[in-house]
Structure formats: structure tokens, C-alpha cells
């Protein structure tokens, strides 16, 4: 038992040292970033992205010793810092976003929050829905209806990307069918609502693959996800362009659908 304990401690230390080593590689760039954020040139920001790519490639290759979740969490925190840097993103965009999720979902495909962040950052912001959907496809095979809890959301995000950003109503319909199927296997009210809404979206797409109501319903999902103000404003704009109205109430947003689909 003592030998096993030593092996566990040794593996933990190895993972931590690997991550520390990778982190130290970035320390000079981080200090430079903190000291000169206000005057960061395009060239500087692009160089930082190149350094980040090298770091992520190393994280893909280092052994995990059973600590994949720890690595995924650490990279996700790095992604949040990247995504939240509005000044840098306004200059060079969000196209590096999927690089983080290659590591995150490979290390922990059951990291449910990552699917929403992947959809938002890569499809909505970076305009790369194909990349987002491909990463989801690779990871969804490791999910089951109840593992992790509310795993049906991953299928829902995939359906959103397929319908709104690829315009592939047939693929979206399959994803929403899967969402409804998995959600219906849970008895809580949230799951029942997701199952009902997903089934309704599927019915609209069955009747009309170009259904405006289906798209309004899907943009409403984006609105209700509420990742940030920019995505909420985009969702409201798209909903109203499709002929619906968004009314803010104390209970939340109310969508008034157009008279005709």
C-alpha cells in the first residue's frame, strides 16, 4: 500500500511539474503582456498566440497519469482568460478558440460546460461552426444519457450550431431528436422542458426545413444561455430579424412569434 501511495504521489508531482514547466515557458510573455497591454501591437498579439499554440501542443503530448480532468480544467481557465481579453480579441479575433477545446475535450470529453463555451466562442464569435461541430462529434461518443448529468445539453449545442451557423436543418433535426431522447430520460422539470422544446423544434423542421419558427426557437436557446452581453444582443437581433419580438419581463425574456412561419 505504501508503494502504491508513493506511486500516486509521484504521478501527481510529475503532472504538476509538467504543467509548471509549460506555464513557466509562458511567464516572460505573460509579464510582457501585463506590462504593455495598453500598447500591444498586432505583431505582439500574434506572437503571443504562436507561443500559446506551442504550449497547447505540449499539453496534448504530456502524460496525464490519470489527471486528465486537472489538465482540462487548467486549459479551460486559460481559455476564459483568452476569451475575456476584449482588447486583444478586437484586434485579432477569436479564431484560436478551438485550439483550447482540442485539448480540453480530448482530456475530458464529459466536461459539459466546455461544449457551450466551444459553441459560443468558435461558432458564434469565430465563425467556425464546422470546427466546433467536428470537435463535438469526436467527444459526444464518450457521453451517455445520464453521464454526465444533463449531458443532453451537448447535443443541443451541436444542433444549434448546425441549424443557425451551417444552415443544415437535417443534421440539426437529428441532434434535437437526440436531445429530446436523452432529456426525456430524466424526470426533473428542466430536463422535461428541454425535451419538450427540442421535440417542438424537430416538428417545425419536419414540416418546413427552412422554418423561421425553428430558427427563432433556436436563437432563443442562445439568448437564454446568456454567455455574455454581446451574444445576447446578437440573439435578440437575429430573433427580431426573423419577425419575432423579444419582450423583457420580470420572469425573463418572452418571445412573441410571428403570425406565419
Q: What number of structural domains do the residues give?
A: 1
Which ranges are low-confidence, i.e. pLDDT below 50, for 5 or more consecutive residues?
A: 1-18, 20-27
Number of beta-strand segments: 2
Summarize the helix and strand pattern as letters. HHHHHHHHHHHHEE
What integer value in Å does the Rg equal? 21 Å
Question: What is the fold named in CATH at topology level?
Answer: Serine Threonine Protein Phosphatase 5, Tetratricopeptide repeat
Can you count the helices? 12
How is the largest sheet built, in terms of strand order? 1-2
CATH architecture designation: Alpha Horseshoe
Mean pLDDT over the residues? 87
Which structural class should the secondary elements be placed in? mainly alpha
Characterize the biggest β-sheet: 2 strands, antiparallel
Residue share in helices? over 70%
Strand percentage lies at under 5%
Please identify the top-level CATH class. Answer: Mainly Alpha
Distance between the termini: 67 Å
Taken from the alpha-carbon principal axes, the silhouette is: globular
What do you see in this structure?
It is a single chain. With 261 residues, the protein is mostly helical. It has twelve helices and two strands. The chain has a single domain, classed as Serine Threonine Protein Phosphatase 5, Tetratricopeptide repeat. 73% of the residues lie in helices and 4% in strands. It has a two-stranded antiparallel sheet. Residues 1-18 and 20-27 have low confidence and may be disordered.
